[in-house]
Write a structure and sequence with these properties.
mainly alpha, 73% helix, NnrS family protein, transmembrane helix, membrane, transmembrane
Length: 386
Amino acid sequence: MIPIVDRASAESIAPFWRMPFRPFFWGGALWSMIALLIWQASLSGWQLPALRVGVAWHSHEMLFGFAAAVVVGFLGTAMQTWTGIPSPKGTQLISLVGLWLLARLGYLFAAVPLWMPVVAEVSFFLLAAFLLGARVLRTKQWRNLFVLPAMLAFAGLAASHWLLPAAQSRVALMVLLLVTAIILVIGGRVIPFFTARRFHLSPREKLPIVEWGTHIAAVLLLLSVALDLPKMVWALLAITLGVLQLVRVLRWHPTKIWAEPMVWSLHLSYWLVILGCFLAALAWSGIAPAWQSPALHAFAVGGIGGLILAMTSRVSLGHTGRILQAPRLMPLAFAALALSALARIFWAPAPSGFLAAIVAWVLGYSLFLIYYTPVLFQPRVDGHPG
C-alpha cells in the first residue's frame, strides 16, 4: 500500500517528530549507554543513594527502557509500510516519547514514588497498543496483528516487574523472551530479504515447518516461563528453537555475506541468539546451571543489542532517503557489539569482563550516535516527508 501523506502538514512538523524511528532509535541508543555507565559505576562500588540502581533496575532499563522502546519505534515506522496509514507523528509521537522519558527518570531517581513511573510506562505501552493496533485492525492486516498482544504484554509485564518483587527475575526473563520472539519474527522477514537483494541472490522459499515451528516454539517457551513449568520443559523448547533457527540461517546464504557490513552484522547477531538458545538449554536442563546468566546475555547483548544496532543503522538510512551504505566506522561498531556479547558470555562475572562488555557496548552505540544524530534530526535528503 502507498500511504497518503499531506506534504504541507508533514513538513510543518520538525523532522525529529515525523516518524517514530527518529526519537526512539536516538533516545534508545543514548539511554542504553547512560544506563550501562550508571550500572558500571554501581558495580565499581560508587555510592549512588539518590538513584534506584540495582539488578532489577538494570534489567528493567535495558529491556523496557532500551529494547522495548526501539521495538515501538521500529513497529511504529513499519506500520506505515504495512498498512498504508501514516505512522504516529507530531503530537501523538511526542506523547509517546514523553511517557517513555517520564518512566526512565521516575525509575532512576529514588525520591520519585514508584507508582508514578509505573503508570507512565504502562500508559506508554497502552498508547502504543492503541495507535499501532488500530492501524492493523482498520486495514485487516492480520499477519501483523502480533503488535497488539505484544504491546499489551509489555504493559502488563512492566507493571508486574516492580509490583511483584518476588517474581522480578521471572518477569525479566519473560520480557527478554518476548523481545527475542519479536526479533525472530522481524529478523525472519528482513534478513533473508536484505541478503538476497544485496547480493542479487534468488531468495530461498521459506519452509513452513521452520517458520511456524519458530513462532510456536517461541510462544510456548514464553508461556512455559509464565506458568513456571519445570525447567526441563524450558530446556526442550529452547533447544527446539535453537535448532529451528540454525536451519533458518543456513538457508540465508551465510557464506556470501562478509563483503557487506549492513548484512553480516544482522547475521552475526542472529547467530548469537542461536548460541543463547543452546546455552539456555544446557542451563535449564541442569547439565550446566552456571550458564544461565551467559545464555540470557547472549540473547540480550548479542541478539537484541546487536540486531537493534544493525537494524537501526539500516532503517535510519533507508527511511531518510539515503544510500544503504554503512558509514566508515560502523563496521567497528557492529564488531564492538559482538565483542560486548562475547565478553559478557565468556569473561564475566570477572569484574574486568563486565567492564569490557560495557565499554564495547558504549563504543558501538557512541559511533551510532556520532554518525546518525544528523540523520535522525534532519529532513529526508530526497525531499519526501517522513
